[in-house]
Structures are given as structure tokens and as C-alpha cells.
TrEMBL record:
Domain YoaR-like putative peptidoglycan binding positions: 246-354
Keyword Metal-binding: no
UniProt protein name: VanW family protein
InterPro entries associated with the record: Glycopeptide_resist_protein, Vancomycin_resist_VanW, YoaR-like_PG-bd
Membrane-spanning parts: 45-68
Keyword field contains Transmembrane: yes
Protein source organism: Micromonospora globbae
Keywords linked to the UniProt accession: Membrane, Transmembrane, Transmembrane helix
């Protein structure tokens, strides 16, 4: 009897495997002799063995055919037959098929994000077929030999995409459909808790977006990209519980800290300033005591029990930086233990007392460390001019903030915050009333003039090549400042920050005359030069005239044109441009303010 392969696909050129059935001889008693002579037993065994060899040879031939190449026979990707080929041959064939489909693959893909539809060019987001990964997937054969012999299968291509570029493109499509989570918050106004209840956000998930586009790209249909609702980890009910069980009772009474050198009382106002409720990126709200803020709130009271460590100091002497103060160790409350123990008693109405442990405290900056920071030469310097001499309140504010910053050392990798360094700049800190810009006009305000120092410091760090972290130019341009490359400051909302992105320490040196303020940066010079290239001014607007009620709060002005301008920081090293950074700002036209009634 002859057996043939079943379910054979049409137009299949694979050879048919023919197998002959064989019955193996069994030892039995001798039967009655037949009418015709039987073959000898040895001959019958030889015939059977020969038939078996034929069968095995056929099976071996079929196996060799089925397992030829790295990719199983019958495997198709995008209509291209890759079966029976080596990986290299399959890759060449697939690339050829992709070339034939190049126009279709480059066609814009329609995506739907929420209620909006747009087209995305595949090349703009790195959307492509990964040939090597697709061939590797195709080579993963079905384990059953018969499947390799007579089966067929279509393998989906492996698609890759640049997740970040796709996310950027989809954000533009989503537009204002996306909303950030409203993070929960608990703050204090004086000693009264103020609450921000959480609200869910609606956003694109970069990985889910990429998966949707990878899966749907080649189907010829618009791809729907989901907007994902995200709930803050701390619910509104949990926020209210924190208020009722911690935030409100925390400031109901003082807490006494006792040490072996005496005690100090923490009043509710100091507790309110140091008790922080911080939300992480998931919206989980966690209470903690910020001991640094607590120390600032207690001020001189801690001097009764603590000796603060003093950092080593450096100043410019004879045109060279020198260590002028070796610093000293101190003795302070164990901050970790104090924060833990204080947080534990704040919910309680009674027993509001903790035991503080005094520990040796080393200065952050020793003379040895300071000397090894590579502060050896002037890297940059910038000067701005002011009027009125040193007797005017504005000039005095400039000098006050300059003295606070003078001698500051910024360690490698550290970010300097001007607000963080000076703290609040009010009457108690020696600042006086002088003109400030508030709601678009000049009005008397405490600390007026500190923006001029901020601009001077910003330019000094800018021309030192240090990293700009945060700054905001003025609403109006004043000709005492360079356009675009300038910065205002306002406690506590507007800050100036830079990062020391060098392997060396940075020393800020300030000096002044009766009409100038200068900031110099000392460190180790890294760059050949740092210069500014300006683009032309555009979108120029002219000021309008506004009449104000005359009085001490009215400050007249002549008005200034508004404009938009680009400034490029060009940094050169070893004779080449290594960095070119663009800064752009739009100045409003400052109105011409007249203290008097408008003419009829």
C-alpha cells in the first residue's frame, strides 16, 4: 500500500514522499507448505530491510527539505516569501520588498487622539520596519516537523519607532485635551492650613502610544492613540485626613526640645514654616519636618544650645584668591532624629516634648577642600551702572544683596539659587523701599534694585559658560541692561539659578563703587571665549500714554518701545564652537506714565 502527503496546497513544487508499508516477520510454527515455493527467510529479511531503507531515505530527504535554510518554508512577511532562506538572504529579500513599498511606507499615517485627528509622517518619528528583528522573528519555526514541511504562515513585521519624537508629535495633536494632574498640597498661611485637593489628569502615555502606532501602522487604517486618565496617589479624602490629624493639630501648641545643654521652645509659627507636605510625581503626599527651615525660623534661639559650624572662606587678595578663614567644627542637633521625633508628637494635644541629641557637626567646606577646588583665576566679570550714588535706597539695596553673595563658593555640580541664598529680602534684612515693576508699572516696593544685581550676576555666570537653570528677563527693556541677557527677581516667585557644570569650584566675588556694581567669577578657565551674537529686533511696538493720580506712589516714566529679539551664546574651545545656545525674549512696550489728569 502506498501513502501520500495530505492537505497539499495547490501549485506546491515540493516532492511527494512515498513510503512503502512493511510487515516485519514473526517467528511462528512451520505452516503447511504452499503450492508455490516460498522465498527463503534470509531473502525475506533482506527485502524488508531494503524497504525500510527506502522509507528512511525518503523521510530524511523530506526532513532535509523541510529544514533547509534558517527560515521555515512557507513563511511570508508583507507578501515576500522568506521561507527556506538563510537569515542574510531573507533580510535581502525583505529589504527589496520594503523598497518596492517605499512610497506606501512613507505616506502620512492618520492618528486619532481623543477628539482630534492629524497626519504624522513616519520618517519624522522614526517609524520603520526593523528588518533584522523581523527576520529573527520569522526564523522562530514551529516545532512540529510536519508544519515545517507542508504548513504556511504569515509573520507580522517588527516595527520600531522613536518613542520621544512620537510623543512630541502626538502632544501637538492632543493640544489642550491633555491636562496635568492637580497635585494635592497642604501649605500654611501663617498657622492656618491651606488645602489644594487633587484632580485627575488626562495625558498621553509614551509607551502605550508607541505600541498603538507600532501595531496599527501597516494596517492601512487610522490609528487611535489613547489618552490615559491618571489619578493622584493621594485622594481628596486622604488629604483632608492629613489636615485633620496632622496639619491642624501640629500648630495648635508649641513643642519643647530638651537637650543636656538646655532647652528651646518651637512656637507654632516655626512649626508651620518647617512642616512640609511634599507630593512626588505620582501625587503621593508625604509629611516631613524640614530642619533647615526650622533652624531659619528659630534664628538665634538655637544659639542657646547649638554651636553652628563655620565654612572655610576664600576672598580675593592682591589679585589672587586666598583662603582667609580656616572654618571650624560645631555642635548641632541631630537633624534626622529631630525631624523624626518632632513629626511623631505634632499630632498630639499633650506631651509635646522631644529630647534632642547634640552631635559634632563638621563644616561643609574645610580649608583643605576649598584649596583643592581649582579656584585660581578670574574666568569672567560683568559690570552695570546705577545713578543716585550710594545714598539712594535703590543703590543701598544693590550693595546689601551684593554683600550677602560676596565670597559664595558653588561646588561642582551644585545649583545656586539667589532666593535660596539670601532668603526673604524685607525690611528686617536691611532692604529699603525703591521702585519695582508690579502689574506692569513702577511702584515703590521693598528691595527695589536687587534686579540690577541679579542681571549683573546672571551675565557674569553667562560669560563664564555656566549652565543657566532659571531666569526671567524684565517685562520692559532698560538700556542699562543688555537686551535679552538680563534677569529680574522677586521674592518668592521669581528666582535666578545657575548650575556649576564644571569639575572646579566657583567663587562669586562682588565689588561696587558709587555708581557701579561688578560681579566676577573665579575658577579654572575652560573655554577660549564666550560671546553673544544678536539677531535683529522685530515686532516693534510703541508705548501708549497713561495718566495716573499724582501722589507718592506715582512714578512717571517716558515709555520704552517693545520688541522681540534673539541672542545666541557662542562658546568656543580649542578654536572651535562647542556650544551655541539661543535665548529669545519679547519685551512689552512700557507705557508713558504721567502723574496727572488727562487733558480734556
Amino acid at each position: 500500500m502506498t501513502l501520500y502527503g495530505e492537505n497539499r496546497p495547490p501549485a506546491d513544487d515540493r516532492p511527494t514522499v512515498q513510503v512503502t508499508a512493511v510487515t516485519w516477520p514473526v517467528e511462528e510454527p512451520e505452516p503447511t507448505p504452499p503450492a508455490t515455493p516460498r522465498r527463503p527467510r534470509r531473502l525475506r529479511l533482506l527485502v524488508a530491510a531494503g524497504a525500510t531503507a527506502v522509507m528512511l531515505a525518503g523521510v530524511a530527504g523530506a526532513g532535509a527539505y523541510a529544514y533547509a535554510g534558517d527560515v521555515p518554508r512557507g513563511t511570508v512577511v508583507l507578501g515576500a516569501e522568506l521561507g527556506g532562506r538563510s537569515r542574510a538572504e531573507a533580510a535581502r529579500e525583505l529589504r527589496a520588498e520594503l523598497d518596492r513599498r517605499a512610497a506606501a511606507l512613507a505616506a502620512p499615517l492618520t492618528v486619532r487622539v481623543g477628539e482630534r485627528t492629524a497626519e504624522i509622517v513616519p520618517g519624522d518619528v522614526g517609524l520603520t520596519v526593523d528588518v533584522e528583528a523581523t527576520v529573527a522573528a520569522a526564523a522562530k519555526a514551529d516545532a512540529h516537523p510536519v508544519s515545517r514541511l507542508v504548513g504556511s504562515r504569515s509573520v507580522r513585521p517588527v516595527v520600531s519607532v522613536d518613542v520621544d519624537r512620537l510623543h512630541t508629535a502626538l502632544q501637538k495633536v492632543a493640544g489642550d485635551q491633555v491636562r496635568k494632574m492637580t497635585m494635592p498640597a497642604i501649605t500654611y498661611a501663617g498657622t492656618t492650613p491651606k488645602v489644594v485637593h487633587p484632580k485627575p489628569g488626562l495625558a498621553l502615555d509614551p509607551q502605550r502610544s508607541a505600541e498603538a502606532v507600532r501595531t496599527g501602522w501597516l494596517d492601512g487604517q487610522p490609528v487611535t492613540v489613547p489618552l490615559v486618565e491618571t489619578q493622584p496617589a493621594t485622594s481628596a479624602e486622604e488629604v483632608q485626613r492629613l489636615v485633620d490629624e496632622l496639619a491642624r493639630p501640629a500648630v495648635a501648641a508649641p513643642v519643647k526640645v530638651t537637650t543636656d545643654k538646655g532647652s528651646v521652645t518651637i512656637p507654632p509659627k516655626a512649626i508651620a514654616r518647617s512642616l512640609r507636605f511634599s507630593a512626588d510625581e505620582t501625587g503621593k503626599l508625604t509629611p516631613r519636618v524640614d530642619v533647615k527651615r526650622l533652624r531659619a525660623a528659630l534664628g538665634d534661639d538655637l544659639a542657646k544650645i547649638e554651636v553652628a559650624p563655620r565654612n572655610a572662606r576664600m576672598s580675593i587678595s592682591g589679585g589672587r584668591p586666598k583662603v582667609v578663614d580656616q572654618g571650624r567644627p560645631g555642635q548641632q542637633l541631630d537633624a534626622v532624629a529631630l525631624a523624626r521625633d518632632l513629626l511623631a508628637v505634632l499630632p498630639d494635644a499633650d506631651g509635646r516634648e522631644v529630647t534632642g541629641q547634640l552631635k559634632p557637626a563638621q563644616p561643609e567646606l574645610t580649608a583643605e577642600k576649598l584649596a583643592g577646588l581649582g579656584i585660581k583665576q578670574k574666568v569672567s566679570s560683568f559690570t552695570t551702572r546705577f545713578t543716585g550714588g550710594l545714598s539712594s535706597p535703590r543703590s543701598q539695596n544693590i550693595v546689601t544683596i551684593a554683600k550677602e553673595v560676596d565670597g559664595t563658593v558653588v561646588l561642582p555640580g551644585e545649583t545656586f539659587s539667589l532666593n535660596g541664598h539670601t532668603g526673604e529680602r524685607g525690611y528686617a534684612q536691611g532692604y529699603r523701599d525703591a521702585p519695582v515693576i508690579l502689574d506692569g508699572k513702577l511702584v515703590p516696593g521693598v528691595g527695589g534694585g536687587t534686579s540690577q544685581f541679579t542681571t549683573t550676576l546672571f551675565n557674569a555666570t553667562y560669560y563664564a559658560g555656566l549652565e543657566d537653570v532659571e531666569h526671567k528677563p524684565h517685562s520692559y527693556w532698560f538700556d542699562r541692561y543688555p537686551p535679552v541677557i538680563e534677569s529680574t527677581i522677586f521674592w518668592p516667585d521669581l528666582d535666578f539659578k545657575f548650575r556649576n557644570n564644571t569639575p572646579y569650584g566657583v567663587l562669586i566675588d562682588t565689588s561696587y563703587t558709587s555708581s557701579t556694581i561688578t560681579v566676577s567669577i573665579w575658577s579654572t578657565k575652560i573655554y577660549d571665549s564666550v560671546k553673544t551674537e544678536y539677531g535683529p529686533r522685530r515686532n516693534i511696538t510703541t508705548p501708549r500714554t497713561i495718566y495716573l493720580e499724582p501722589g507718592p506712589s506715582c512714578i512717571p516714566s517716558n515709555g520704552i518701545n517693545g520688541f522681540t529679539q534673539d541672542a545666541y551664546r557662542v562658546i568656543r574651545k580649542d578654536g572651535k564652537v562647542v556650544k551655541r545656545e539661543k535665548f529669545t525674549w519679547r519685551y512689552d512696550a512700557e507705557p508713558r506714565y504721567v502723574c496727572g489728569r488727562e487733558p480734556s
